[in-house]
Write a structure and sequence with these properties.
The chain is mostly helical and 120 residues long. It is 62% helix and 0% strand.
């Protein structure tokens, strides 16, 4: 679980650094070791869900568009936020169309990082 969460978190940080306009909030780039336990658990769960989608598609999920990949990560993340919080912040559970472009790109990057981690 820890390794899955770390893959997710490292892809998130790399995506934020690449796509976020300006200087990101510290919480966006907090290293894995300092990430709150609930967030580590959520990251590992979403990574696992991406892995299951890829496995369940016999590897054909690679043919999904970047947008579809990002949407999958966003929906899985929103579900985790409802699991961990009775009343999550609106930004944690926003629909795809409400997410800023940098976050949509980062979510797609996360999916692709999980795919790459499965190639070995």
């Amino acid at each position: 679980m820890s390794e899955d969460g770390r893959i997710f978190r490292e892809a998130w940080i790399a995506g934020v650094r690449m796509h976020f306009p300006g200087e990101p909030k510290d919480s966006y780039i907090t290293p894995w070791e300092e990430t709150p336990a609930w967030e580590r658990e959520a990251a590992a769960a979403v990574c696992g869900q991406v892995r299951e989608l890829v496995r369940g598609s016999a590897g054909r999920a690679v043919r999904l568009s970047r947008e579809q990949k990002g949407q999958f990560v966003a929906v899985c993340w929103a579900a985790q936020m409802y699991k961990h919080f009775e009343d999550p912040k609106p930004g944690y559970v926003a629909g795809w169309d409400q997410l800023p472009g940098w976050q949509r790109e980062t979510d797609a990057d996360i999916f692709e990082a999980v795919e790459r981690s499965m190639d070995g």
